[in-house]
Amino acid sequence: MYLFGKLHLLRIILILIFASAQLTAFAQEAIIKAGKLYTIESEILNEERKIAVFTPDGYAEGQVTYHVMYLLDAEWNFKYVAALLDKLTAAGEIPGILLIGVVNNNRNRDLTPAGKNDNPARFGGGKKFLDFLTQELQPWVKQNYRTHPYSILAGHSFGGLFTVYTTMEEPERFQAYIALSPSLGRNGEQQVKKADAYYEQNAPIPESIYVAVGNEGGYTAISTKKYAHILQDQESGLRFKFEKLEDSSHESITIEGFIHGLKFIYEGFNLEQFPELDEIFLVEEHYKKLSERFGYELKVPESQYQRFAREQMVTKEWDYARFILSQYEKHYPGSIELVSLKADLNLLTGDFKEALKYYEMLNSLGVESESLSRIIKELKD
Amino acid sequence: MYLFGKLHLLRIILILIFASAQLTAFAQEAIIKAGKLYTIESEILNEERKIAVFTPDGYAEGQVTYHVMYLLDAEWNFKYVAALLDKLTAAGEIPGILLIGVVNNNRNRDLTPAGKNDNPARFGGGKKFLDFLTQELQPWVKQNYRTHPYSILAGHSFGGLFTVYTTMEEPERFQAYIALSPSLGRNGEQQVKKADAYYEQNAPIPESIYVAVGNEGGYTAISTKKYAHILQDQESGLRFKFEKLEDSSHESITIEGFIHGLKFIYEGFNLEQFPELDEIFLVEEHYKKLSERFGYELKVPESQYQRFAREQMVTKEWDYARFILSQYEKHYPGSIELVSLKADLNLLTGDFKEALKYYEMLNSLGVESESLSRIIKELKD
């Protein structure tokens, strides 16, 4: 019980923070596994389809629901986008997102809207493929995974063409769209002409649309710029961004394009962009606004409660620290990190009996570390 | 045998090209697997180490050797960098690269060079870890994989610090380095001071060094800028690039930083940057120069021989097409695409017997497609 006499307050806190950093377990196989592969039967397409699924970190242990990203050309894009989502989430740039990759059976047939001169065996099956996505795949995903309604559709080249097509054909099915180097020159710029007429009649429904082309010549670049021009003229609630990525080719645009697209859709999500949000209630307010934008309750990340609680503990603002932890508990009642902070707070305020209770709770929850054992031993002595 | 009467020349070629595009088989499980995980025994560190390995597309079937990238903090970076290499290679921005990810056992201990005030149980084991990398891991990789000597070392934060440390401690072990937001403020800017003295005495040995910081405050940004200043002053053969990535934080810098670093190391590799290389001998000359830079024979990609051969076939320059295919054969004697082009060329020049021979060879090599069966049937009739 003579802990306090021996160690400086701040040093204890640093040790405790170090101990809590060890809480994050990590699975070895997660290093090399990007997702799971399923085969599902499509009645609409009358064939089997391969679907690749990536679940965000913590999905298995958690209860929350996730935004869903539907990704075309999964055989080329899935592994990269899954790893990218992982990275962007870990860096706090986006929330955890469930990724659904659709592997091609017949790419030319499925990703192209029907045109007058198409041989229907080889091109123009876009409508049927969209029906598969919305009437079979989306229900399958909802049934098998914890999802909430905000969904993204993303594609490249023919996949980008299909993405643009969907924004007008069934705009309410996805809330955000990423179209990279879309093949909008196809069928005499069919989709560009459609957009011109469509937006005369209809206000855009999606929340966000991101479109990019690389440093590439030809019809794709030209037609996409025309399309962007039409969308940029819309004075509605639509969030639209068009970019030319000078360092990318038609092929390599999927690398930086998905990064830019995701950052655009989730603009405002990363708190580091807002150094003025230096109180927990300002952060909660910010997330309330984001929640309104995305149409569901977006929770303040645990890390924020931890950060603010620790700050108060360092400056010995015990009451405010307790208030932050009570807010933390409201949103994350079962959190191990919360138990750890409660233990630390009680230790620092001299309530050793309570502190011991929470440290032992940590132990019983499977947390093991040298500093934890040492503290429990000292508190028992 | 009345094929020519029925179809226009160009249309045949397009069908053949379409058939050959189908040659590229792709394994379903490759969509969701990023690599293999090994456990190896380190005598130097007296512990087991986890090593994650990604092999580039075509590795299993091929004979060629590959550049090797050694990546620190594999538990956070491996999946992303493996997928990124895949993408950059497919887009023609870099050659196929073998990725070796080193999973941490004790990150603080291994990635920090020894400093005066370090508790050696927790910090400062950098030299021993470097010995493990160069005396145990590199030989293991050479023994188990087809490698050639050009190697890259890449790391972030503490991993970036270790990377910078290695450029001076054993500069000849890796030919290129990527250090992202390196923790150069550590131990009173120990490595920055060392660099200042070191480059007074020594010319830099590595071929390329890429360093970046994000839009981040604190010691890391300040000390890294000082370090960059020292390296930028070197008037030697060193290729050095320093960037501040404004849209990245200390955490998210690994996303764009690895892209920029790899593009810098392999600057000149993507032929799209050189539209003036419009003859096969110019391309071969360009690759000869790249080969000199990288210190080993860098082969003209198969796709280039295919592209130029097809161009000549479209313009009916048969002799030149034959010459290109003979060059192609010199470098890729067992290529299936080469057999396919030989078949097409013989078909187009009317040597149906030879054409049939090569189409049947394709068949016996396991290539199956509707158009291939149709052509074989027509040639036999």
What does it look like?
The structure is a homodimer of 381-residue chains. With 381 residues, chain A is an alpha/beta fold. Helices cover 50% and strands 15% of the residues of chain A. Chain A has 2 domains: 3-25 and 301-380, Serine Threonine Protein Phosphatase 5, Tetratricopeptide repeat; 33-267, Alpha/Beta hydrolase fold, catalytic domain (Rossmann fold, 3-Layer(aba) Sandwich), CATH 3.40.50.1820. Chain A contains 15 helices and 8 strands. Chain A has an 8-stranded mixed β-sheet with strand order 1-2-4-3-5-6-7-8, sandwiched between helices. In chain A, helix 7 links the parallel strand 6 and strand 7 (208-214). In chain A, helix 7 packs parallel to helix 8 (218-232), helix 11 packs parallel to helix 13 and helix 12 (318-331) runs antiparallel to helix 13. The termini of chain A are close together. Mean pLDDT of chain A is 90; it is low at 1-10 and 20-25. The interface between A and B is large, with 42 and 42 residues. Chains A, B: It comes from Poritiphilus flavus.
Give the CATH H-level superfamily of the largest domain in chain A.
Answer: Alpha/Beta hydrolase fold, catalytic domain
Mean pLDDT of chain A: 90
Alpha-carbon Rg of chain A, integer: 25 Å
User: Spans of chain A of 5+ residues with little confidence (pLDDT < 50)?
Assistant: 1-10, 20-25
Most extensive interface: A-B, 42 and 42 residues
Largest sheet: number of strands, sense, barrel closure of chain A = 8 strands, mixed
Percentage of residues in strands of chain A:
5-15%
CATH class of the largest domain in chain A: Alpha Beta
Q: Report the principal-axis shape of chain A.
A: elongated
How many domain modules of chain A? Answer: 2
Number of strands of chain A: 8
CATH fold title of the largest domain in chain A: Rossmann fold
Head-to-tail CA distance between termini of chain A: 6 Å
Q: What's the SSE pattern of chain A?
A: HHEEEHEHHEHEHEHEHHHHHHH
Q: Percent range for helical residues of chain A?
A: 40-55%
Structural category of chain A: alpha/beta
Note the total helix count of chain A: 15
- Kindly report the oligomeric state of this protein: homodimer
Strand order of the largest sheet of chain A: 1-2-4-3-5-6-7-8
The CATH architecture of the largest domain in chain A can be given as 3-Layer(aba) Sandwich
Organism (chains A, B): Poritiphilus flavus
Protein name (chains A, B): Alpha/beta hydrolase
Pfam family, one (chains A, B): Esterase
InterPro entries (chains A, B): AB_hydrolase_fold, Esterase-like, Mycobacterial_A85_antigen, TPR-like_helical_dom_sf
